What we know:
By secondary structure, the chain is an alpha+beta fold.
Amino acid sequence: MTHTTMVQSNDAGKAANRRFRHATMRDFPQMQRIYAHARALMASNGNPTQWGTQFPRESVVLDDIVNQRAMLLVDEYDGHERILAQFALCPGEDPTYLNIDGAWLDNNAYVTIHRIASAGLVRHAARDCIKWALKHYGNVRADTHPNNKAMQHVLESAGFARCGLIQLIDRPTDTTRIAYQRHEW
C-alpha cells in the first residue's frame, strides 16, 4: 500500500498562488480521481450512499465543464499546478429546490453549490470554495446527505442556515437531502 504525504499550502513557502478557475476538459481525469477519493472518504466516514460508486455521473461532470459550471481551487506547488478542490456552481433556479419541507430564507436569485469535493491535499479547501462563492454571488444554496456530517459542519460553520429537507429528482432511492442557504449582503 502506498501512502501519500499531505502537504499544507503554507508548507515552507513551496505552495503559492491559490486561486479559482473554470475547469477545462484537460482537468477531467484529475477531477474524476478527486471524486473517487471523495466517494471513498465518505464511505469510510459512515456515508456510503450519498454518491455510492457512480455519482457524480461522468456525463454530469462533463456537462459542468462544457457549461463552465465546474470550478477549481488550485495552487502552484513545486512549479506545478494542482487541484485542491472542485465544485459545480449552478446559477438560476434549481428544479430540485422548488419543493422544500421547510422554507428558504428568501425567494431572491441565487446560485447553488453542487458536487463539492476536496483532493485532500490541504485543510479547509471546501470551506474556501464556499467562501469564494459567497463573496462573488452573495446568495448561495446547497444541500447534503443527512449522513454527511463533515459537509454539514462546513456549511454550518460558514454561517449557512438549515432551511429544511428536499428530495432529489434525479435518483430513484436515497433522495432526502438537508437544504441550506446563506446570503452575504
